Amino acid sequence: MEGFRYHGYSEAASEEVFQCRNKSPRDRWGRPVPMVALLIFIAGFLIFCQRVQAVELTLLYSNDMRGIIDPCPT
Amino acid sequence: MARRATFIKDLEKEGKELLLFDAGNSLFKPKDSPSPQEREKARLIALAYRRMGYQAVNVGSDDLSAGIEFLRELKGEIPLPLLSANLLDEKGGNPVFKTHVVLDLGGIRVGVFGLTSDIRQNEGGTSEGYFISNPIAAAKRVAAELGKDCHVIMGLSNLGSFKEYTNLVQQVKGVRFIIGSGGSGGHHQTLRSDRGWETFLFQAYPKGQYLGRIDLKVLKGASDFADLSRKVNLERQISSIERQLDSYRKGTGRAGSIPQDRKEEYIKKLEEFKKRSEDRLKELERDSRRNSTLIGTFIPLDEKVKDDPEMKELVDQFRKGS
Q: pLDDT (tens digit, 9 = 90+) per residue, A57-73?
């Protein structure tokens, strides 16, 4: 089976595109398919990056100081 | 106080993203009728908290010892971030202070709310001008609101008893951390509700001898936390078992005087125990790869921590004046 040859816009090229209808999706969509896959991959990667983005925090807390300003050393 | 300030400043110098909270009962002694001097001391504590950069201070039942008007005036003089979701104005039923605060740190939104114990009210103490509503109902309301857009929800709770904290965890969904006050000892526990969620309860020892510290690594996409503090304990446990096993196998120390058949029995039990500990450690390590993590410690504010000069001066001035 002859593969799809890409032409610039012309009547001949349009005819060839028309003839490509019965070819496999890979051949028919030779250019768009990898582009869509790439976009899906990038979107997935960005979502993944956002999910695994880590922020380090240090929480310090006190309780029951009971009006003491200068506690006895531990 | 001066040591605490030093510790906080040191962490700030290290460039740590800090959260600084107080869970309540900071201003007065329990069941106190504060003297004018004690009220001055409460002012000093509020000022010190402000200078240290506290972002949320829960109103504990003992903080109400001098009455609600005193707290209102104090907040007017020193803009301390006082919180309570269930401390309501007696007339209008509106919250006296903010119920919660949302802090955005590096894109992580941390929602913090306060809860006040109704112990003073129930015991017939003075409660002029305010009313403490049911803390569980208030926690449910505020947690549902914070749950809409916060990655982590924390409660500063003055409920005191372990039984009350368990009840809170059973009934209120979505609160990942509770910092407690009103009890006597230090806690670092994981509480699991019957309905599947998990809450970490922390409470430092009273009177400021220790500062509680939790190091968090928060993943935006993971709301569950693996408690890596357990990792240190498990590693210690495993190395202790290994030492005991070594002693039994070589017959050294006390193991030398134990009959052979009992020795073999002990070795078998220790090996089983070691296997269980290693499995738990592996499970924890697996969890830590896909979840957010925490490590909880208590920092002793002993002589090794130097006084912060600015805070020391503030305290010394108060002493001279009183």
A: 999 999 988 877 776 55
C-beta atoms of B24 and A50 within 8 A: no
Tokens of B194: 């019957």
Chain B CB contacts of A59 below 8 Å: 18-21, 154, 177, 212-216
Q: What pLDDT score does B262 carry?
A: 81
> CA B43: distance to chain centroid?
23
In angstroms, how far is CA B149 from the centroid of its own chain? Answer: 23
Cα gap B229→B285, rounded to integer Å: 12
ipTM field: 0.86
Tokens in use for B74?
Answer: 């104090």
Which residue in B48, B210, B221 is closest to A50 by CB distance? Answer: B221
pLDDT value for B291: 87
pTM listed for this prediction? 0.79
Helix axes B36-52, B309-321, angle to 10 degrees: 170
What is the residue-wise DSSP string for B101-163?
A: EEEEETTEEEEEEEE---HHHHTT---TTEEE--HHHHHHHHHHHHTTT-SEEEEEE---SHH
Residues from chain A that touch B181, judged by Cβ atoms under 8 A, are: 63-64
> Which residue of A lies nearest to B312 if distances are taken between CA atoms?
A70
pLDDT mean across residues, chain B: 89
Q: What is the pLDDT of residues B196-242, one digit of tens each?
A: 888 999 998 888 888 999 999 998 877 889 888 888 889 999 999 99
More confident position, A39 or A47: A39
Cα–Cα nearest to B117, from B85, B93, B146 = B85
Distance from CA of A49 to the nearest CA of B (A): 9
Query: Given a cut of 80, is residue B258 above it in pLDDT?
Result: no
Question: By the 8 A CB rule, do B83 and B98 touch?
Answer: yes
Q: Do B1 and A69 touch (CB under 8 A)?
A: yes
Interface of A with B (CB under 8 A): 50-74
Is the pLDDT at B158 greater than 70, yes or no?
A: yes
10 Å Cβ neighbour count for B145? 17
Under 8 Å between Cβ of B187 and B202: yes
Which residues of A fall within a CB distance of 8 Å from B211? 60-62
**For residue B41, pLDDT beyond 70:** yes
Q: CA of B50 to nearest chain A CA: how many angstroms apart? A: 14
